[in-house]
Structure prediction request, 1212 residues.
Amino acid sequence: MTAGNLPGLRLHVPEPRFRPGDAVDYSTLVIPPAGAQPRPDEVCAASETHPLCLDLVRVLGDDDRAHGPWNPALDVATLLRMLRLMALTRAFDARMVRAQRQGKTSFYMKSTGEEATSVATAMALAEDDMVFPSYRQQGVFLTRGYPLVDMINQILSNRADKLKGRQLPIMYSARECAIFSISGNLATQYPQAVGWAMASAIRGDTRIATAFIGEGSSAEGDFHSALTFAAVYNAPVVFHVVNNQWAISSFSGFAGAERTTFAARAIGYGIAGLRIDGNDPLAVYAAVRWAADRARANAGPTLIEHFTYRAEGHSTSDDPGQYRSAAERAEWPLGDPVDRLMRHLMALGEWDAERQAAMDAAVDGEVRAAMRAAEANGVLGHGLHHPFRTLFEDVFETLPWHLAEQNAQALHERQVKWPDWSDDADLGDAP
Amino acid sequence: MSRHTFRLPDIGEGIAEAEIVAWHVAVGDVVAEDSPLADVMTDKATVEMESPVAGRVVEVAGEVGDRIAIGSPLVVIETGDGDGEGDREGEGAARILRQAQDERVLEHRAPAVTPEPSVTPNPGPVRAEPIELRAPTPHQSPPAQVTRVLASPAVRARAMDLGIDLARVRPGEDGRVRHGDLDRFIAYNAGGGFAPAGGRRADETVRVIGLRRRIAENMAASKRHIPHFSYVEEIDVTALEAMRGELNAAHATRGRLTLLPFLITAICRVVPDFPMINARYDDEAGVVTRHGAVHLGLATQTPGGLMVPVIRDAQSRNLWQLAQDITRLADAARGGTIAAADMTGSTLTVTSLGPLGGVATTPVINRPEVAIIGPNRIIERPMFVPDGLGGERLAKRKLMNLSISCDHRVVDGWDAASFVQAVRRLIETPSLLLVG
Amino acid sequence: MTGADAAPGRRMTMIEAINDALDVMLARDPMVVVLGEDVGYFGGVFRATAGLQAKHGRTRVFDTPISECGIIGVAVGMGAYGLRPVPEIQFADYIYPGLDQLVSEAARLRYRSAGEFTAPMTVRSPFGGGIFGGQTHSQSPEALFTHVAGIKTVVPSTPHDAKGLLIAAIEDNDPVIFFEPKRLYNGPFNGHYDEPAVPWSRHPDSHVPEGHYRIDLGTARVVRAGEAVTVLAYGTMVHVAREVAERQGIDAEVIDLRTLVPLDIAAIERSVRKTGRCMVVHEATRTGGFGAELAALVQERCFYALEAPVERVTGFDTPYPHSLEWAYFPGPVRIGEAFDRLIAA
Prediction:
């Protein structure tokens, strides 16, 4: 086992700094002051952005004011819209977890604490730029105006679910909003977004593509294939790595965070990269707009690391209290995105606690109303589902003989048990 | 007021049970929608279950520390009528969940096939949980196993078609039965009755309902009330068939003529001379109505049984019109689309079994009519015919028997025979039929 | 051949026919793009894309990084945009890094999005052995794809079919794996590796019509009519099986399946019901191979027509060897003995 007097080799297995019950100390985290980061020109050489890959672009300061060259200088109406969309996202998440706890669906994933990464990104893009989301970008759907009822129908897998009950809850598809179908296989959307962007460039289109991934999934080969292709073809694509510190129970160290930042991956591929405060909606907006403008100007792709924190469990199946310190959320030094934007608006004199409370009540009412409307179409597992034949549709464009035979078998099996059953019976009456 | 059973949902992607770690409600408590019910712990997480409805808790599933199965009741809540705001919101969810429970009822209702009680002589306690019941396979005890036959599927298929038990076929030297062995078996056993006529089949009970019951009642009434007599005569239809062939060839577009339109035409021609045949007898009133028009009933076999559609005023129709009427009415009867008006008022009925017509029939009268006429099968037979030189020769002729049954209370044998002879004369000299 | 011989055209190798199909489709449909390792300026390691970049431009025919995951992944995205990408995976042996994108993404995109997005791509890939490619340049992984719901799998055996099938595949709105038997690129291989090679120019099926024509996916072709035995084969083995039948004087009906999914089950049933005897042949390893599927289908649907057990003639369950290539290959002896067993049964 040993050769001479060489020291024995040691395997390093990363370990997060805080486990359940531990006190939390984030003082070693380097948080630069807001407004201190330079903003290069959108069509600069990629290398000019590389210092920013190890920095942290911030706009909203501790004084709740916007600072520095990255300040997007949004008007109040836009800021209020941003705040409302983030609050709506939060209210939606809360209601959907309740629905799961009440047995109306099987599964849900909240985006609490990460609302800025999706809402501000969607607002900074053109409406028809193509988004390839991962599973925690409900804010993009809400910002693009995808109907709440359609989202809930999908979550409940009911008879009105456009996806015919085929997908796990939250794996939406919204072509009319230029949002790609969500996959449960991680990172696959990354090269797909590059392909879409390449196609857009091949066709001389003006639309760009954008893709989301978590820091944990950035370890997948697809991530690196995507960055290689994007760099090679200078594809008009904006990559987001939402670094929320946790991949289920594995901390970011298992994706390489102990060695460098995720934005720094851009340096190796020679593309533009930005590391931003993901809980600062203005920084998110400014960075995404910068990268989108860069892509649209044929100046190439950008990798943006949204440095944020997953404030809740990975999903309704997960209990983060078993592997991380409960104090992390409260101690997170970059705060909460909804709270920060609210305080910014208050500092501008455009907002107050009363209006905030009214808005929270309004978005909650909006979600409740949508929930009621969706529940009228049925809830998961309670009979009102799509016809059995839809099991066999869309495997191919047309039904080949073997699927036609299997379709007949499925109907037959049901009728063995219930002779009077017809394939449309479980659709129920229209509400 | 209704009861909502909150079953423990699968909160962790495929878990089987969960432990109750805390109760937030007790029996008798009033809960609001979304308020906490209990904390349950799975091997993945501890989660708080919330109430989907507002109401009063009437049952809880167990104690802290109990493990309960996914899908089993956690809490039963009596829901209110929905007079408050919160209640109204609860109502929407409650309605859906009630619907959901209805769906469960649907799932749980008696399966299509229930087992014979004798299968489970000691069924034990009744199970509340749904179980998929299978009918016991009514298998016969396997035949005493002799030797297993070696044969290819193709040889087996052929033996199956022929009804041959392969075990009785002598195989080749290697023990396998091949097609050649089967050939030899068949050749050797030909005429020897190697196979029984068939296997025993299970008894069947068929309820006599609907059309079948009506037919049964009508036929019984006819036979009970009417003293039938039948008369059969042989008719040479050689000339008629020749003429029919010529007409069909010459007027292909008008539709094909069968023998029936000719027979009906002949009957209609003759009826004025035999009014007692085309009549209806009201035996309770004691009145025979001899009809001036021939409303001709056509006994027709349909999937449901015998039906008798009616050609109204058959005497006023020509050959092709009759042919069209026959087709139309038969199709409508078989297709179940016939109008009630086309099924009533016949004065005389013809029944034809076509190629199954047989040598003679003794049809049952369609009461209250007094006669029914049945043409039989046409066959070719050698006959002595005049040779034109005063002698006779053998000739191939087409012959058809015509049967008639009459109500002897109002039709005499003489009348029936004379009527049939008149019809026969017309048919054997068919050119007379075409003379208006 | 439905009159194809009469159509204007010329004799081609399978490589030329594939090149011609790509050329026709690039010219005909601006949404078609060809991408893959070395397919651009150089024209592909087997020359299948030679001249296409010069003719159709660098944004229609281009080289890619060496990343099968990336190639298939970007093709999914291109398909979502509306293009009809025709990615080449340089050897079927290299397709595995792209498998997740094929199996989890391309194959299920239409289904999971209920038709909102589709993956109308045709993945071309040289496959099969007999060229001394060793274990990394000889595999036949078709069964991995026939097992996946939502993918069509095509294997041509002649230049004429290669062009018509490739055009149909590119025009298909579902993802298609198009496996090109390398051993057939330049001539119809009859299995006698120790005899002089025969060029396509001496084979009637090398007559390739000009321009656009389709051979619908899911249609098999009776290559040789016969009454005694049905042979189900595809790719290289079509030629090998036919040659064995000729030399042994067996009245075999050889059916070239051409498409494995969707399968022309009617043609199979028609033939097996007639002959009562069936052999399935493929070059891929035996266990879990597509031949197992064929044998199962034949016994399910033609059981009482069978006079003999279905014979399965395949490669061995080993990696594809280099020096012992012909020991692995299901050649004339293996096929011939299977014929003998079928006829004797």
